[in-house]
TrEMBL record:
Homodimer. Residues 2-349 form the Isopropylmalate dehydrogenase-like domain. It is an enzyme of class 1 (oxidoreductase). Its cofactor is Mn(2+); Mg(2+). This is 3-isopropylmalate dehydrogenase. Mg(2+) binds at D220, D244, D248. Its main location: cytoplasm. GO terms for cellular component: cytosol. It comes from Nitrosomonas mobilis. Catalyzes the oxidation of 3-carboxy-2-hydroxy-4-methylpentanoate (3-isopropylmalate) to 3-carboxy-4-methyl-2-oxopentanoate. The product decarboxylates to 4-methyl-2 oxopentanoate.
């Protein structure tokens, strides 16, 4: 297993360090894992002047899987867009054709009271958000800020081809088939043509998945339903921008954004794995960030890129035990629990592994 480690910026190095300990533990056990660090995002801008430098492009091409912390931070906000750390992340997703983003929203029963929602609303929650990751308004042309008739206009293009929609729809139908057989497609077809095509193509794709129950929901309603009655959902499939927003919202159902891992896959299950959260500049360098989303991303890597189900389950069980024993970083802390730092959470996971 050739794994590239891209710590990135902000809390990235703190959380990836804990996930790396899990990988090193597997190496000690005899797993054939090679770890190669690389630069992506703001740290790459600092070192090489660009967010996705050639050395990282080579590293990404050679690796079987990549683990990312997070990129970005206020220090880089004044850079031209193509030099922004986030552009590095968008470029690596595009370069590796990582169009299928899996964001499982699963509540550990131990965290039922950590959510800001009532425990009965979230207990037993298990949703999979399938987000299209290489298209939509994120990548559409034309885009820009231009002066026309004496004032500035900002514009982006929301665009999907039918083949882009169909391939993510197939991924989502197949995921639903492996789960509870229900797929809800999220769009805004009442207003946006791009998402009318989305709905049409999803319906056409459904013909070869008669065993999956397909429903559709407008994105504004979906945002509301996620907090009203999230357990109505099994698999949700949506475009790049709606998926970005809905997954941050859904993360709070599980107690914290610091709990949600993700996998971004190409057609051959080569993948980039990362927590769904960002570089959290407000808590960087304090050793208080929750590393569990990143550690759980390693579990997803073992499962999806390496078919090492046993290793994935062992990581997930260790996390579950750590929570059962009351270990809590600040973001999921409740009275009566043991408040721990980032590194202490790593210690706890390692000890249960
Ligand atoms: P964020 O996700 O970084 O932080 C939002 C809030 O959640 C903050 O209060 C933060 O402290 C908290 N939080 C996030 N992760 C946490 C963790 N592991 N443990 C405890 N608390 C955690 O979002 P933001 O503040 O909007 O963005 C900050 C920077 O990160 C921006 O530059 C943004 O572009 C970037 N970003 C990067 C990624 C990525 O690399 N995949 C994702 C989202 C945002
Ligand atoms: C995410 C992030 C990224 C996105 C940004 C940092 C480019 O928010 O991974 O969810 O919008 O996809
Ligand atoms: Mn996001």
């Amino acid at each position: 297993m050739k794994i590239a480690l891209l710590a990135g910026d902000g809390i990235g190095s703190e959380i990836v360090a804990q996930a790396e300990r899990v990988l090193r533990f597997f190496i000690e056990e005899g797993q054939k894992i090679e770890i190669e660090p690389g630069l992506l995002g703001g740290c790459a801008v600092d070192a090489c002047g660009e967010p996705f430098p050639p050395a990282t492009q080579q590293l990404a091409a050679d690796a079987d899987a990549l683990l990312l912390g997070a990129v970005g931070g206020p220090r880089y906000d004044l850079l031209p867009r193509e030099k922004r750390p986030e552009q590095g992340l968008l470029s690596i997703r595009k370069a590796l054709n990582l169009f299928a983003n899996f964001r499982p929203v699963m509540l550990f029963p131990e965290l039922a009271n950590a959510s800001t929602l009532k425990a009965e609303v979230v207990s037993g929650l298990d949703i999979l958000i399938v987000r299209e990751l290489t298209g939509d308004i994120y990548f559409g042309q034309p885009r820009g800020i231009e002066i026309r008739e004496g004032q500035r206009f900002g514009f982006n293009t929301m665009i999907y081809s039918e083949s882009e929609i169909a391939r993510i729809a197939h991924v989502a139908f197949q995921a639903a088939r492996r789960r509870n057989g229900r797929l809800c497609s999220i769009d805004k077809m009442n207003v946006l043509e791009c998402t009318q095509l989305w709905r049409d193509v999803v319906i056409e794709t459904a013909e070869i998945y008669p065993d999956v129950t397909l429903s559709h929901m407008l994105v504004d309603n979906a945002a509301m339903q996620l907090v009203r009655d999230p357990k109505q959902f099994d698999v949700m499939v949506t475009g790049n921008i709606f998926g970005d927003i809905l997954s941050d919202e859904a993360s709070m159902l599980t107690g914290s954004i610091g709990m949600l891992p993700s996998a971004s896959l190409d057609e051959n299950n080569k993948g980039l794995y990362e927590p769904i959260h960002g570089s959290a500049p407000d808590i960087a360098d304090k050793n208080i960030a929750n590393p569990l989303a990143t550690i759980l991303s390693v579990a997803m890597m073992m499962r999806y890129s390496f078919s090492e189900e046993q290793l994935a389950v062992r990581i997930e069980r260790a996390v579950r035990q750590v929570l059962a024993e009351g270990y809590r970083t600040a973001d999921i802390f409740e009275t009566g629990m043991r408040k721990v730092s980032t590194t202490e959470m790593g210690d706890a996971v390692l000890s249960y592994l």
